[in-house]
Amino acid sequence: MTTSIIILAAGQGKRMNSALPKVLQPLAGRPLLRHVIEGSRAVGADDICVVYGHGGDEVRAVFEGENIRWALQAEQLGTGHAVQQAMAGTPDGNRVLVLYGDVPLLRPQTLIRLFSSCGHDEVGVLTVDMDDAFGYGRIIREDGAVIKSIEERDATDAEKAITEANTGVMCAPAARLKNWLGRLSNNNSQGEYYLTDVLAMAVADGVVVHGVMTDNQAEVMGVNDKKQLADAERALQRRLVDALMEEGVTFADPARVDIRGELKCGRDVFIDVNAVFEGSVILGDNTKVESNNLVRDSNIGASNIIHSNCHIEGATTGNACEIGPFSRLRPGAELANNVKIGNFVEVKKSTIADGSKVNHLTYIGDAVIGSGVNIGAGTITCNYDGANKHQTIIGDGVFIGSGVELVAPVEIGKGATIGAGSTISKSAPEGKLTLGRARQVTVPGWKPPIKKK
Ligand code: UD1
Ligand code: CA
Question: Which secondary structure element, helix H or strand E, spans residue 358, and what is its range?
Fold first, then answer.
C-alpha cells in the first residue's frame, strides 16, 4: 500500500516564547522537523507532506530542494483542519500516517508496528501509558476497544484520571479520512477542529480503531516549551550515547556529552565529560578525548589524545597525534602521524607531516610543514599582507627557534635552523643557520626613568 505521511508543522508554538518557529527549534543541533522527516524516510514513506503556516517561509527555506510536498494552512484552526489542507494532494487509495512536527523522537520500529497492526481499511492510533498524562489527549476505551480520544481541556475528572494518552500519531485510509475531516466540528473548549475526533467518527462508521501502545514514553514526547525541549534533548542524547556504548565506546559520564550530528567511533575510544561533537565526526581506534572539547566536522585518526579545552573544526589527523590542552585546529588543518600540537597553538589550512611538533603559543596558517620539524614557542606565520594570503613552506627536519616571524611567501629549506627572534622574509637555504634580527646592543649612558611628582 502506498503511504503518505502528513507532518503537522503549522503551529506557532506560543509556549516556546521564541522568534524561531517551534519546528525549527534545534534538537541535537538539528531542527525538530528534520528529525520527524528523517523518521518518515526511515519507514519508507512514498510521499511526505508537511503542513506549514506560522513562520512558513523560514520553515520551507530550511528544507529547500528536498523531496517534500508542502501544504499551506494559512490559519491554524486545529490539527484536523491542518490534516485537511494536505488531503487535496493525497490520492484516495493511499494510507495516511499523521505525525506531528513537535514529536521528534518516534522510532521507526514503532511506526512500523502501528502500520502492521492495521488492515487496509482500518484506523490505528499510537497510545502511551504515562506516569503523568497532563496536557495530553486521553484514550477512552470500552470493553478494551478504543472508542474516542478526549482533550485534557474537554475531559471530565474521571477522564483526566486515565493514564493512557493519545500520542497524536494516527494512520487511516485516505478516502475515509477525507470524509471524516469534512465532518469535523469545532464545538470544543478551544474552538478548534481536532484531528483526534476522527477516532469516534471511525467507530460510529463501524471501522475498527486499533490502539497500539508503546511503553517508551520518551519517543512520544511532545515538545511544546523550552523545558520539554531540554527533556527531549537529554532523552535523544542518551539514546545516541547508548548506541555508541553498545559499540564499545567508553564515556566517563553518559549524561555529560553532546552529539549534534553524527559521531562514528572505532574500538576502545574514551570520551571524558563535556565533549561536544557537531556535524560529522570520526574518532579512530583507541583515541581519547579529554574533558571540555568541541570537535566539529573532523576526522581524527587512531590513538590520538585530545587533551582538555580544544576547539577543533574541519580538521584531519593521522594516527598517534597529541593535541592540546588549549589548541585550536581550524578548517583545513591536516596533521599526519605522530604530530604534536600544544597549548595556545592555532593551525589553519596547513598540512603538517609525520612527527612534527608545534608545542606552544603559535599561529600556523597557509603552511606546508615537512616531517620531523620543530616549531619553537611563539612562532607566527605572517600569512596575510592585508589583502591576500600567502604560503609558508617548511622542509623536513627544520628547527625554528622561538619567537620567529615567517613573512610569507617564504620557504625554509630542509634541515635548516632559524635562530630565535628572527623575522624571516626571504627564503632560507637547506641545512644552514639563518638569523634575521638586529644585533644586540647595550646603550651607554642610559638612565632609568624617574616618576614625576
Ligand atoms: C495534540 C493532540 C493531543 C495529543 C498531543 C500529543 C489534538 C487536538 N490534540 O495536542 O490529543 O495528546 O498532541 O503531543 O490533536 N498544528 C498545526 N495546525 C494547527 C494546530 C496544530 O499544524 O492548526 C500542529 C502543531 O504545529 C504541532 C501539532 O500540530 O506540531 C500538534 O499541535 P499542538 O497544538 O501542539 O497539539 P497538542 O495540544 O499538543
Ligand atoms: Ca504538542
Answer: strand 357-365
**Residue with CA nearest ligand 1 atom 2:** 168
Judge contact between 195 and 170, C-beta under 8 A.
yes
Closest to 70 measured CA to CA, from 30, 111, 101, 113: 101
For domain 3-220, give the CATH number: 3.90.550.10
Q: How do the domains of the chain map onto residue ranges?
A: 3-220, 248-434
What phi-psi label fits residue 65: left (phi over 0), alpha (psi between -120 and 50 degrees) or beta? left
Helix (H) or strand (E) holding 367: strand 367-369
Please state the CATH superfamily assignment of the domain spanning residues 248-434 in this structure. Hexapeptide repeat proteins (2.160.10.10)
Amino acid letter, 453: K
Which pLDDT belongs to residue 12? 81
165-180 average pLDDT score: 97
* DSSP one-letter code for 247: T
Decide if 70 contacts 60 (C-beta within 8 A). Answer: yes
Does ligand 1 have an atom closer than 6 angstroms to the CB of 364? no
For the record, the C-alpha cell of 79 comes out as 490539527
pTM of the model: 0.92
pLDDT tens-place string over residues 378-437: 999 999 999 999 999 999 999 999 999 999 999 999 999 999 999 999 999 999 999 999
C-beta 51 within 6 A of ligand 1: yes
Among positive and negative, which fits the CA dihedral 110, 116, 120, 121?
A: negative
CB atoms within 10 A of CB 381: 26
Q: Determine contact, residues 86/51, Cβ cutoff 8 Å.
A: yes
Which of 75, 100, 152, 198 is the pocket-test mutation for ligand 1 (most atoms within 8 Å of CB)?
100
Strands 275-283 and 257-265: parallel
SS3 content of the chain, % helix, strand, coil (to 5): 20, 35, 45
Residue 11's pLDDT is 86
User: Residue 70: what residue type?
Assistant: W
